[in-house]
Fold this protein.
Amino acid sequence: MSEHEPTPTPELVTVKIDGKEHQLPKGKNLLEALLDLGEDISYFCYHPGLSVAASCRQCLVGIRGSMVPSCQTTVSDGLELESQSPTVLDARRQMLEFTLVNHPVDCVICDKAGECTLQRHYMDWDGKPSEIDHEKVEKPKKVDVGREIVLDAERCILCSRCVRFCQEIAESPDLVFEYRGNHETLTTAPDRRLDNSYSLNTVDICPVGALTDKDFRFKIRVWELYATRSVCNGCAAGCDTEVHHRDGRIYRMVPPKDWDMNLNWMCDDGRRTYKSVAAQRLTRPLVDGEPAELDAALAAIKERLEPLLAQDRGAIGVVLGADASNEDNFMAARMAYDFLEAGHVYLADSPDNGLGDDILRRDDPNPNRAGARGCARGDLGSSEDLARDLADHKLEALYVVGDRLDLSDETLGQLRGLKLVVVQASEPSRLTDKAHVVLPAAKWAEVHGTITRTSERAKRDLSASRFGRMRPAVEPPGMARPHWDWLKRVGAVLGVTVEFESAHAVFQEMKKQVPFFAEAQWGGKIPTVMLRFAGRRG
Amino acid sequence: MPARTKVVTVKRGLWENLYLPEIVRGLGVTLKHFFINTLGPKSKRQIVTIDYPDVVRELPERYRGVHRLNTREDGSVRCTACMMCATICPANCIHIEAGERENPASRDIEKFPQVFEIDELVCVVCGLCVEACPCDAIRMDTHVHMPPVEHRKDAVLEKPELMSRGTKSIAVDGGAGPDWRDKYTDLGSLTQIYRPDHIERDRERPARR
Ligand code: SF4
Ligand code: SF4
Ligand code: SF4
Ligand code: SF4
Ligand code: FES
């Protein structure tokens, strides 16, 4: 179905388009082949990740004098077709007019306006005043169809993309059409709601604004947003994502819409992870619970750690974070093994939550458990091991990277007895309350860095890279900094000079030193773009 | 192209170079006008200033005054928070926060501006917001100058103030319907220009249907 296996180089055949000969791969979907050639063709119902419905008739081409939907035709030898002749363009215009017969044209309040396919086609192809002179059929508006989604049935152009998505990708047939002809209406299937874990993808692929996201609804117009490419940190799958933001605030996360990454979906929970970026955050270093200046915090670490370094390095513990990037964990591992020569290295991660499925989501809710393991030189202790070592008084100092260390009250109480507990975290927690020194950390949406995706994702393996790349969409709050940068600064006060100017520099060093990352790619520069110039979505 | 310059030499004789006599002559001109305009016969007076604000000059029809927000038949604001005006505004002085109507009747427009603010001090009075508005919600035809303010923030007009000058729009709520061509043969009547006295009049105007 949506499996994309590496196909052998296809045979090229000659196809005549508007009298001009082209070499096209045999058997390829004609619409896609034409779009690849740069032909200007309108379409609504076709989606490269879904089966072909050929219901909108917007992609018509002329073959042997009749109009044929190109999305339902494959490239064959000797095919001759018209794609830009006046008759074909007229046919497409008339189809567009049909599509608009019952459409309310309420772009003014429609969240899709600005990235709407219907709007775009109308502007590009038609642009003339309505000639419809009868009352439009009224259909239900503002229907609460699911946990995350509102439906405006009047805006729906009946392309069935959402219906097919639910059946084919989400494997949950939640949507159906009822009535026929002029009165055909999208609705939920009997006894069902649009509540599957991937429902918000229907909002993206809907070519119009019929399905809108409750969380995003009316917050901002899309053309006011800026898009930054990053990777979701919601689970170990590490889906590629676009973070849409403005003025330092994130408004939504959506899958990137590149054609060659066409099977990009995201789960609903993943899309909401942006909320934690704006949650209550640590913005200043804390020393013994009191806000402190940066230098004072670093001095406090130096003062309390140096006696230990002279005596018993075995009693120092370092905790890597399954929520921190590869670069962060690499720096933490270097500090632990090369400099502190710490006796104990642990991994802080959240336990598997059983929410995984064979579509995208993994059971492992940590974005980078694999990367943290990849940085380790030897086994990493678990948080149970940490609790045991604390109980056995094996530790004198503890250095924690990340927010994922979850200890019981009893163990937290034992932390008090240590000489030094340093926590690099982004949010206040029971652990930061107990720490001697807290350094505020930046979150994934605020940093450059890479994460390691756990495994092949079930329904797609297109990006082919095991490593996802994060790019900063917003500024970290207050004095928060990336973990690697804190580790560099702490190293510097303790007398280790590390000359990393950027996360990229750390990445290159990591790639050189750790065989696990030999294949890793930093990824090209993808600039942040304003969506005003980004075309359509869906 | 090189700039063309013309050199003009002013010839001054001894009389001009003596300086004082010319000063006295200049004062004479000033005093002549002063006395004509104050003591002289009314027909000869040439006063171009007016006693603003007691006397107000008549403004041109399309004068752009402070903004106002129009209302629907039911008195609610016509604006749908579509952000067209805020987007086109070259001064970036329109701030709108959209909200969703609590329990709209089925055909009501769901979106409305919870916050609508215009900083009249930042506004460059270009009128683009009025051009951009698809809902005939924002207008600048109030013929009202922005009054001077003591604090900058007082120049930020908020929704209630903007609506206080609002009237019902000449557009029909919900659209004129598919037979609009037959209904409105005289399109000229739809493009009347507002005057301050119309604002009072239009508050009472019955709905056009
Ligand atoms: S809601 Fe959108 S995606 Fe679904 S059938 Fe209608 S137009 Fe197509
Ligand atoms: S599957 Fe995981 S990585 Fe992908 S969007 Fe969902 S939470 Fe994010
Ligand atoms: S008149 Fe021009 S500058 Fe003033 S609010 Fe309107 S668009 Fe902005
Ligand atoms: S005043 Fe007009 S253009 Fe501005 S947001 Fe309201 S409806 Fe849109
Ligand atoms: S895209 Fe081909 S029929 Fe809809």
